[in-house]
Design brief:
This protein has helices at 58-70, 76-79, 172-184, 203-216, 232-240, and strands at 5-9, 26-34, 37-46, 49-56, 82-85, 90-94, 101-106, 110-115, 119-124, 128-133, 143-146, 187-188, 227-231. It has 5 helices and 13 strands.
Amino acid sequence: MFHQVAVYDQRLYADNSSSEKIGVPFVLSFTPVAAGETLVCYHQTQEGVIGEGRPLSTDDAVQLVSSAASNRKVDPWVNQRLLYQSSQVLCWYRPASKKPEPMWFRQSGQIKLMALYPALVFVKSEGLRVYAALTRHVDRNTKLYHAPLCNVNDSGSLCFGSADRPSSRDSVSQQIATCEAAIFETNFSHTSGSKSFRGAYGTEAHIAKWRQLADAGKAPSTKDLYSTGFTVESVVNRQEK
């Protein structure tokens, strides 16, 4: 996952005789020493070989891994949309639709609308939260609204259902693509909360509202959406705790 650090079970490399070459500047090893206790050591590498270990405290190990995670490189195109990145949280946004895009529902049959999505802000930690932003430029101070989407509850959490889930082992670009596919390649079946649209409660009313907007060639506006009372930064900070 990291570009600057690798993690190994020290039991596998105790004699340093492995023929595998390590392609990172340092590694962290974790060695069980007693019931419920683990020794964490920092090892520099030279010519692909792990050097002697220096014991680290738990706080030092967490700080080192967090620093390596926050400094890892990302693809240039991802960086343009990336708002925040740490070892615990990944936050990015998808700009509002410039032209109508497919939105799928499944009721008695499949329904396809050509809709204008608002800007969407994704916050991935243990789960995935999705919010709407009614501005072209999204930054840490942007006010967030409840996303007018099915499968998103009133706390912003997305239910993936049968959609693929992102893996922390994937690259940042892969994680983003997987999360966004859960929205844009999904047949929505029902609403998961009561705050997708003002005055439109339930799945049928939700679809009817999107159909009205699509027919008018409009995207949701402030009069259509509920404010969360949060900004991008405050939502990220809540996930970091």
